[in-house]
Design goal:
Blueprint (H helix, E strand, L loop, with lengths): L3 E2 L3 H4 L5 E8 L11 E4 L6 E5 L8 E5 L8 E4 L9 E9 L4 E6 L2 E7 L12 E4 L13 E8 L5 H7 L4
Antiparallel strand pairs: 1-10, 2-7, 2-11, 3-4, 3-10, 4-5, 5-6, 7-8, 8-9
Length: about 170
Amino acid sequence: ADYVELPIGPLLSTLTDSTFATWVSFPNTGGDWQRVFDFGTSNTAGYMFLCPRIPSGPVRFGITPAAGGDAESVVDTPNELSTDGWHHLAVVIDSATMTVQIYVDGTMVASGATETLPTDLGNTTQNWLGRSQYAVDAYFGGSLDDFVIYSRALSPGEVRYLAGDR
């Protein structure tokens, strides 16, 4: 399995509002806890990730500050990601409301509170597409396309546009 290492460590420490978006084809093979992305410094503190499937089924976004502790904020979608074809995933982080929203194919499917923003991660050194901070987790067993990071919280209309609603 392959993964991509991104040279974005200093970038994340500057982000309060942000959007992370990509196209995903996920056949759901290879095990749970695979990562679409995982940016951080270790598997104990200062990381954020997007999993296409956790053991209980749904998509999960998680973030914890560099200071560590029990401050991990997670948002799970109500349903599993369909394995039929390509899907657009977006995570929108809004610092004004301290919320995280997950969009699938342009529709917001989950929202939750966060205590942590990307800036709280500090300067990250392990910034991967398709690989986890946890060595025992499988690499991503699907395909990714057009991964982008925005330094602002995109509006619902902007996310729909990225997902092809034009």
